[in-house]
Amino acid sequence: LGVHKEVDAHLLAHLSQKARNKWDFMEDSLHNSSDSRSIPANERMYEQPEPVTHNSVVKEKILQRKSLQLHHQQQDWQESPEGQKMLEFRRSLPAFKEKDAFLRVISQSQVVVVSGETGCGKTTQLPQYILESEIEAARGAVCNIICTQPRRISAMSVSERVAAERGEKLGESVGYKVRLEGMKGRDTRLLFCTTGVLLRRLLVDRNLKGVTHVIVDEIHERGMNEDFLLIVLKELLHHRPDLRLILMSATLNAELFSSYFNGAPTMHIPGFTFPVRAHFLEDILERTGYRLTPYNQIDDYGQEKTWKMQKQAQAFRKRKSHIASAVEDALEVAEFKGYSLRTQDSLSCWYPDSIGFNLIEHVLCHIVKNERSGAVLVFMTGWDDITSLKDQLQAHPLLGDQSRVLLLACHGSMASSEQRLIFENPEGGVRKIVLATNMAETSITINDVVFVVDIGKAKETSYDALNNTPCLLPSWISKAAARQRRGRAGRVQPGECYHLYPRCVYDAFADYQLPELLRTPLQSLCLQIKTLQLGSISEFLSRALQPPEPLSVQNAIEYLKIIGALDENENLTVLGHKLAMLPVEPKLGKMLILGAIFKCLDPIMTIVAGLSVRDPFVMPSDKKDLAESAKAQFAARDYSDHLALIRAYDGWRDAEAQQAGYEYCWRNFLSSQTLRAIDSLRKQFFYLLKDICLVNNNSETYNTWSHEEHLLRAVICAGLFPGISSVVNKDKSIALKTMEDGQVLLYSSSVNGCVPRIPFPWLVFNEKVKVNSVFLRDSTGISDSVLLLFGGNVSRGGLDGHLKMLGGYLEFFMKPELAKTYLSLKMGLEELIQKK
Ligand code: CDP
Ligand code: MG
Question: Which ranges carry the Helicase ATP-binding domain (predicted)?
């Protein structure tokens, strides 16, 4: 410990150099050809103009030549027959009419807010207008436009589209970059990237050297990264008066952003959507022969009861036919408004996971049978629901008939061949039905949609700051989102939208969705604030568009202190610095680092990759038991989901080597797509760790102890602490308890979820989710000694601080014996340190 500080300083100096090299490795062509590597990041903040030298004159000439070349290329394409055809299409988009006005306003103002209906051409056209006009002004080789997207899939698909519109291959003047993946070259001038990618660039290049335009897209979604980026950019604009910032939004809360940027000019692109008729539940029910008393007539309890009796009588009359049960589902939805819709805060608690599938089925049948042609877009809450509904519909005599209906699911991680089908028109009068999540609201546009079915819910992460627990609950969407969903039906002709909830529910929706910054844990964000040297975390976040609760901020800071990323004074520790360089959650980053230090990197990389992609074990609802027992085989009495993941992955890697990977996945209920993603992520992790000097080329040297299962449990514990629950085996059940939540439960998909007893006193877990009870998703059993030695963070306030915290835990869980053991362990350690 005596040399600790010195080592810190040394590592830090080394690290900052390495960090820049890493950026170069990842982001090479983002930088202009001028070399910024030799200037330390903090000095680059306020740079002096370069003096005119022979070199700079030569450089200038080269750039001029490149700009000229770009201009010729652009002209050639635009004059070619294909180019003409493309131009004709582009000119038909509403954005085209505003092109000149747009270019004028960005030349006059540093910040511009643009809003416009989805599909009017904001994302594909506006960045392109800038690029084209820069090229025409012979500045092609010096302009550097970055357009951020909240989602990977949109960054990828939009860049592909824009490259095609320019008659180029992706990676020439137009490219994309998403986490750990990208397609761009030295001469890429317009880059579509995820917001996270731009934020990581800011870590090592605070001034965005060489960047001429930043376009932040879909700001109305109010994602955490976007809100964070806006705070940083707002500050940066003072230091970079030449930088242009364009904010793009689908819905019309442009004023909010404009006033945040001191009254920046706003621009609206009028859309050309056709009118869409909205049907609410009452109306839909009426069409099927049900009458529902409107909500505003049910004022008191008595009337509500009458309404219920009416409903029962009607249901009885219909004798529970198929449709009746569908409508029952719907009525159930309508019914709960009587309890809670007046108090907005409890909206999300009342409603079961998904609206009755039968009702959706019923409405789809109605459309297929009775309505004119046109594709149908169904908004669901999540992937699970989409798959289950798709299964149900496929079994239906009409909707499952492939000669009449083409059923498609739309999801961010689906294969690109399947993606393409979504945009294509099916032939021969087949009706296309696309089941999608809220990503089809704004990020992607399916042109031929005429009917929209909206269940009014979206799965949304929220964050319970009081209990410090993230929750994943389907909650009601906002009015803005409902309008947006409705609008998707009017792209090519007048459309119809079936909102499967009563009008009164719609009236109770919030106008806009709560920004993510106000509903998620802020740990990674706080780490980034410190790394970017943006001052006090609380002060910085108080400058947000809508600042988060002080309690949430405090929780996040406290967490970072517990895991050792921040010291008592809120300064980044060496660990914190390294964690900020790894594009994974802090706890997973810590696990990786410890995996390298304790030489068990290979399996730890698998775990971290698995936890940051998604679970490769698939649990189809109809074969749940089989799938669970397949997973249990990998656990082999380990009582660990994380060790099961390692086994499953290792087995797959061996099977792949013998070309039997697919069969292996099929037999073991594993997703080969996910395993492949894990595989590639593992490789990336290794490079990243090499970059921050934790490993060298030889991966073998970091695997000396990879087969030591106890050590793996210890490293898992060190990473996931304080995600810990005590285990008490009872006669017929197992009682689990965490400090924040009290009693908790395990998901049945966990290998520990269906065992009669767990022979470990503790479980560590990565994720807990509050649904109605708190559930642990995954877990690993650990012993007392592992908890004592690896739980917590010895560097925090020295051993005393560590003991105090761990002591608090042990006391809470009523383990005084363990506390005593810890005390003697501590004294022994101190003695040892003194001797050394
Ligand atoms: O961003 P915004 O919603 O305003 O529209 P956009 O994404 O720029 O799309 C404008 C138009 O380009 C759409 O209406 C589609 O017709 C077309 N487009 C396309 O054909 N293929 C894509 N991958 C993206 C857009
Ligand atoms: Mg867009």
Answer: 103-270
Q: Are strands 762-764 and 181-183 parallel, antiparallel or unpaired?
A: unpaired
* Nearest residue (CA) to ligand 1, atom 22: 161
List residues bridging with 213 in a β-sheet.
145, 244
Closest CA to 436 of 385, 495, 392: 385
H/E element, 388: helix 383-394
- How far, in Å, CA of 813 to CA of 291, rounded? 56
What integer best gives the mean pLDDT of the chain? 79
Q: What is the pLDDT of residues 728-740, one digit of tens each?
A: 998 888 999 988 8
Question: Could you read off the pLDDT of 410-464 as tens digits, one per residue?
Answer: 876 565 566 678 888 888 889 999 998 877 777 677 888 999 999 887 776 655 5
Which 3 state secondary structure label does DSSP give 300? coil
The tens digit of pLDDT for each residue in 348-404 reads 322 333 346 777 888 898 899 888 999 999 998 777 778 778 888 998 899 999 999
C-alpha separations of 259 from 111, 607, 654 in Å: 11, 45, 58
| Per-residue confidence (pLDDT) for residue 471, from 0 to 100 | 53
271 Cβ inside 6 Å of ligand 1: no
* 419 touches ligand 1 (CB under 6 Å): no
Q: Which of 232-246, 579-593, 620-634, 656-670 has the lowest mean pLDDT?
A: 620-634
Say if residues 788 and 821 touch (Cβ distance below 8 Å).
Answer: yes
Distance, CA of 569 to CA of 499 (rounded, Å): 52
The residues, ordered by sequence, that sit 6+ positions from 137 with a Cβ below 8 Å of its Cβ are none
Cα(466)–Cα(476) distance, rounded to whole angstroms?
22
pLDDT category, 640, cuts 50, 70, 90?
very high
- Residue 794's pLDDT is 53
Mutate to test the pocket of ligand 1, among 87, 114, 120, 124 (most ligand atoms within 8 A of CB): 124
Q: Is 467 in the pocket of ligand 1 (CB under 6 A)?
A: no
Q: Cis before residue 722, ω within 30 degrees of 0?
A: yes
Q: Which ligand is nearest to the CA of 447?
A: 1
Helix (H, G, I), strand (E, B) or coil at 613: coil
| Residue-wise burial string across 158-179, b where 16 or more C-beta atoms lie within 10 A, e elsewhere | bbbbbbebbbeebbbbbbbbbb
* 677 CA from centroid of ligand 2 (Å): 27
118 within ligand 1 shell (Cβ under 6 A): yes
Which is the closest atom of ligand 1 to the Cα of 442?
3
Q: What is the ipTM of this complex?
A: 0.99
Give the phi and the psi of residue 375 in degrees, each rounded to 5: -75, 155
Q: How far apart are the first and last CA of the chain?
A: 10
Determine the average pLDDT of the residues in 667-676.
86
With 0-12 CB in 10 A as exposed, 13-18 as middle and 19+ as buried, what is 490?
buried
